[in-house]
Write a structure and sequence with these properties.
Helix content: 55-70%
Distance between the termini: 17 Å
Number of strands: 2
Oligomer: single chain
Number of helices: 3
Strand order of the largest sheet: 1-2
Largest sheet: 2 strands, antiparallel
Radius of gyration: 20 Å
Order of helices and strands: EEHHH
Structural class: mainly alpha
Shape: elongated
Strand content: 5-15%
Length: 100
């Protein structure tokens, strides 16, 4: 690592590129898994069923969890996009640049 900054270790450009590559691969794997979950036959069956009792309660909790997973994924997508833009020399949050 290149040193320590006010918020922790500072990465050099090669380390940033490796980290962004790894995070990009993880992003793709997560997206693939979430899309497979969306398209799962069991999920489609439960979504179309008239559920009652404990099954209805558990399915409601599961749906809320799946929605939360997509919310987290959207936040991860935004953070990764910002990091890539900053690495490319564009302006990041509050107009700050990175690696320029």
């Amino acid at each position: 690592m290149g040193g320590t900054g006010p918020t922790g270790p500072v990465m050099d450009r090669d380390e940033v590129d490796r980290a962004l590559g790894r995070l990009g691969a993880e992003h793709e794997a997560i997206e693939t898994s979430l899309l497979a979950l969306q398209d799962h036959a069991g999920r489609r069956l439960l979504e179309g069923a008239d559920l009652t009792g404990l099954t209805a309660e558990r399915w409601a909790a599961t749906e809320a969890s799946i929605t939360l997973l997509w919310t987290y994924f959207d936040a991860y997508t935004g953070a990764l996009r910002t990091a890539r833009e900053m690495r490319a020399g564009g302006a990041g949050p509050a107009g700050r640049t990175w690696c320029s």
